[in-house]
Amino acid sequence: MLVDSGLPHKLWEYALQHATYIRNRIPRRGATITPFERIFGKRPDVSHLPIFGQAVVARVPDQLRRKNKRFLNTRGQLGAFVGCAEDIKGFHVYTKGVSRSIFTSRDVSVIDRMLFEVDPTTEDGDGDAGEASDETDEEQEQVLDDREGAFPSELAAVRRSQRIARRTTTQAQAFAILSNVIKEPLNLAEAKRSPQWEKWKQAIDDEVHSLFGNGTFEWIWILHFLETYAPVAGLVTVRIFFVIVVHLKMHVRQGDVPAAYVKADLLEEIYMKPVPGYAKAEHKGKVWRLRKALYGLRQAGREWNKELDAFLLEYGLKPTQGDPCLYFAYVSDSLLLVCVCVDDILVAHEQEEQCLRLMTALSQKYQVKDMGVPEACG
To answer: Following DSSP, what letter does each residue of 41-108 receive, concatenated?
Structure first.
């Protein structure tokens, strides 16, 4: 969507927000209503939506045109539609020109063309916005309405800064460059030739010692298992979880299960060869038998899910009909919610001590790390 619009790649955040806005207003596969209608109880109206990057004209307020002779004959500012505002009824507009700001306008006319013509030979489809990549990502976000002085900063008088301008690099560009600099070894032989071999060896030792501590090993026989399905909380479920949390003003804590799969017992009889370099002389001719569901086994995810599900049921929680990874119970006359995403666990309750109580039980059973209040989703 961002590439087709011809807009600078630094607007990826607005493209992502707009894609989410649209996705929440269209039905999922196998569903008859949209997520928006499921939450708010009414059908969404998307007939007013322009195409991302479509040219629009935001009206210049009369007060500003009368005050500034520069805009005496200007009734509108040309820009590109980059999404819908959440706090007010209006559109986010990206403007061309020197400042290249992003503002929000309530009075917008849509033009039947894209603002930028996409050149297939131009990288990232920046078009005539090529020099925009040298600017910072801190876009000016403003609200355009009929109040005086509410128009974007490029229409006001520009005061030259005395600071020396420095070329900046966006975070996306930095990560792209970093991925080309750091080369991760593909096997043990490459790791031994790496300048960071000592660190790799320490990491391997820690991993193998962890396997010994849990009594788990890697299997080698080619076996086929019928029951391998393990449910995982979907993105919609996670969003609904946080919607309920915000609506009921609940406390939330996040837990992480280290080496989750090896917490579950393995029912099948599976053997493996020892990890190279860790077999002692007296063990020559012997193999290891798996006692735990080592990651890499086809049934490992299912066995871990069964293990955690049994614990939560014993605690008094019940899975919801819509998603078996979302559990609920009423504790102290208040709702207790638990959302499971493989080895990540979210716990919510109106009383924080109830969250801590469950986290303590999980820690005692599975050595779950209490990560505290979640700060970001991703």
So the answer is: SS----TT---TTEEEEEEPPHHHHHH-GGGTT--EEEEEEEEE-SSSSSEEEEE-SSS--EEEESSE
